[in-house]
Amino acid sequence: MSVTPQQPERPPLASSLAIATELWVLVTIAQIVAVCGQFTMASDQIDQVRDDMARQGQPVSYGLVVTMVIVISIVMIGGICGTLTWFARSGRNWARLGLGFLSFYLVVQTVYAFFVAGADHWTMIPTVIGGVGALGAGVLLLHRDSDQYCKDMAAWRAEKKRPTSTYPPGGYPPVGGYPPVGGYPPPGQYPGQNPGQYPGAGQHPQYPQYGQPGYPPQQYQPPGPQNSQQSQNEPDTGERK
């Protein structure tokens, strides 16, 4: 008998991890805005790339180089942060720890941005917003509820990968023994029982008793004086060693 096993229930998302991943969406947007506004800080690298391409006979405009740098930066920031955020929300512990490391790295980078050139630029606004959001996200990512959620999700995924059993939930063989197969015991084996039933507790087959009609059998000869004397008169022909 095959029994359809119940699917394990998915653990509910921890509120601390949910808020942390939502904060990281805000941090990612803030970092993209800050990078778009700080392209002038990479002017040295942009000039070097432009000069190299010009020496190879591939003149390129300044605007094209800036666009390439901005696009690459956006793809890297959005790809890395978005991937880690998605996996952390799905209960992957390595993604949670990686996102926590990036959170505190951005906090340090935000503090450092106050002491470099261009600290009075408008791009400091998204930088500070991203740093504060990263600080809150880092604390929530390292919360014990977030850690417990990742452990529960790991156990849930392991349970889903376990092969399903075709035996009843109570174990095999079933409690109470196997059911009768083929009408056991045979009909008529026990007097007074219906076909296919076992004798009840305290019931035994009703055999004829001594002295009742039909017992002992007719061919049975009880021992008597004649038989006893005849057996004594018979010679013993057996050899004894």
SSE topology:
Blueprint (H helix, E strand, L loop, with lengths): L14 H23 L5 H13 L6 H28 L3 H21 L10 H18 L2 H18 L63 H9 L8
Helix pairs in contact: 1-3, 1-5, 2-3, 3-4, 4-5
Can you put this structure into words, describing what you see?
This protein has helices at 15-37, 43-55, 62-89, 93-113, 124-141, 144-161, 225-233. The protein is elongated, with a radius of gyration of 45 Å. Helix 1 (15-37) runs antiparallel to helix 3 (62-89), helix 1 (15-37) packs antiparallel against helix 5 (124-141) and helix 3 packs across helix 4. The chain has 241 residues and is mainly alpha-helical. It contains 7 helices and no strands. 54% of the residues lie in helices and 0% in strands.
Helix and strand composition category? mainly alpha
Q: How many helix segments? A: 7
SSE succession: HHHHHHH
What is the number of E strands? 0
Mean pLDDT: 74
Gyration radius from CA atoms, angstroms: 45 Å
Based on Cα principal axes, name the global outline. Answer: elongated
Q: Indicate the proportion of strand residues.
A: under 5%
Q: What's the main sheet like?
A: none
Helix content: 40-55%
Unreliable spans are none
- Measure the end-to-end span: 66 Å
